[in-house]
Amino acid sequence: MMIEANKQFVEPAAAAQSDAVAPAVSPLGVPPLELQPVAAHAPAARYQLAELVRYHDRAFVTHAYAALCRRAPTDAELAHTLDDLRAGR
User: Fold this and answer.
1) Is the pTM of this model over 0.85?
2) What is the DSSP letter of 40?
3) ∠12-15-16 over CA atoms, to 5°?
4) pLDDT digits (tens, 9 = 90+) for 47-56
5) Contact 61, 85 (CB under 8 A)
6) Where are any strands of DSSP class E within 15-71?
7) Contacts for 70 with CB less than 8 Å, ≥ 6 apart
8) Long-range contact list for 41-47, CB < 8 A, 24+ apart?
9) How large is the C-alpha radius of gyration of the chain?
């Protein structure tokens, strides 16, 4: 018996529907891992620090811009701020 390493497992039924949207539950019945809350954002007059620090990386920067600048970051601002954040600056 030979075992192939690094080969992705594909369910026979899923192979025919490879262009379909990914299911909410994997074929093995495991729900997807959510590392942070869904980035649902409603503009507010005031923000609590806890509302911002529960987000990470890109979601944090987007929410911080909304709270501090009252707008979404431009692509350049997002890239620069993410670079600073990831570098610890």
Assistant:
1) no
2) -
3) 105
4) 788 888 888 8
5) yes
6) none
7) 43
8) 41/66, 43/70
9) 20
